[in-house]
Design a protein that fits this description.
Shape: globular
Oligomer: single chain
Structural class: alpha/beta
Length: 369
């Protein structure tokens, strides 16, 4: 990817509750066969690290359930990946959220995070700590810090401006999503996790995938309540879409069956999971990318036969259309940071599909190209 590409214009695969390997049906969100170093090798680039203070040290937690891995172990795996000759030009976004705010004051947690970064491999120098969305060239070999914890930033050198990307709001399980500002970038976030039951999986996927499409805007990007304005129709400013495809509620929507589904849905006996539905949606969007450059070369497909296949796609069904301009067409522009549960199911296919979106819907002179 070109160094000039802003991170907000990339589709980055991520894992929700990256270190949640334990807790069985209630708290587990990732498979034991995909530890952190495997996730990074598989293409995961957004990490959702949730921590609590135990005996003066930070440990991975999911809610009230301990996930065993010390924060220093996480930092060591990240440092090893970013200093390897094979992957030293990669970039990782790391979101950190406090899971013990009722027992540990936010300033204490904030100080611990800073101190453990400082004493870990790579120190604070491995972090991009500015409160803005950088370009890829600025952060190769670095961790882009996203701080999802409170306090006034007194523990950091530049206060709130030195805690990396810092959300100003984060309402709990907002069904329609919400927006917040990061300098000149509008961040559209979808984190509706408290679905009533597995019967709401189709609605969850439908709402989340809309955030991957070009965002609506007519100069009024959100309503007074912070929710995206559904009436807007054209984009006028830089946008980052941050979506969590995860969902869980007890007892009818545990993380694993929501992500993976259960039974035999292809035969009409069971429920198709979020990951399979998301993969099919992205695949349909990619197949709908019909277009030729002005020189007549095929923009998105390898052959005319592929284009003929793509012409059969129902664009309205998946909510995307080909955009016509300057004598040529492009397919849908799908962008955002996508955090999923059990990302390796089904069949390690989802990350590849999400990465492929980075090479569709681009034009020279746009998004850093």
């Amino acid at each position: 990817m070109p160094d000039a590409v802003p991170l907000h214009s990339l589709l980055l695969p991520g894992t929700h509750d990256t270190m949640a390997f334990y807790g069985w049906i209630i708290s587990q969100c990732q498979s034991l066969e995909t530890p952190l170093h495997v996730q990074l090798q598989n293409g995961i680039r957004v990490l959702d690290i949730r921590l609590a203070k135990i005996e003066g040290k930070l440990i991975a937690y999911h809610g009230v359930y301990p996930e065993k891995t010390p924060f220093q172990t996480i930092l060591s795996a990240v440092h090893e990946f970013l200093t390897s000759p094979i992957s030293c030009r990669e970039t990782i976004v790391m979101s950190i959220k406090q899971e013990d705010s009722t027992s540990t004051p936010p300033p204490v947690f904030s100080r611990l995070v800073r101190d453990e970064f400082a004493s870990g491999p790579g120190g604070l120098g491995i972090l991009f700590l500015e409160n803005r969305i950088p370009t890829l060239g600025e952060v190769r070999g670095k961790v882009v810090f996203l701080s999802r914890f409170g306090g006034d930033g007194a523990e950091w050198e530049n206060g709130l401006e030195g805690m990396g990307i810092h959300p100003t709001i984060w309402p709990d399980s907002e069904k329609d999503g919400f927006t917040w500002e990061c300098k000149d970038v509008l961040v559209r976030t979808h984190d509706w996790y408290a679905i009533p039951s597995f019967l709401y999986i189709p609605e969850k996927v439908s709402l989340a995938t809309k955030f991957l499409l070009p965002p609506p805007s007519n100069g009024n990007d959100n309503n007074d309540d912070g929710k995206p304005d559904k009436r807007d129709t054209t984009s006028t400013r830089p946008i980052l879409s941050l979506i969590y495809t995860s969902a869980a509620s007890f007892p009818f929507a545990a993380p694993r069956p929501v992500a993976q589904g259960f039974g035999w849905p292809n035969w009409g006996f069971g429920v198709e999971g979020v990951n399979s539905r998301l993969g099919k949606w992205v695949l349909d969007a990619l197949r709908s990318s019909l277009g030729r450059t002005q020189s007549g070369s095929n923009l998105f497909y390898g052959s005319d036969a592929d284009m003929e296949i793509g012409k059969g796609i129902d664009h309205e069904k998946i909510g995307v259309e080909s955009l016509v301009g300057n004598g040529w067409t492009t397919g849908p522009r799908l962008r955002g940071w996508v955090l999923v549960d059990f990302y390796n199911q089904p069949e390690h296919s989802l990350v590849d599909l999400l990465v492929e979106c980075n090479f569709r819907g681009r034009r020279p002179g746009e998004e850093g190209w």
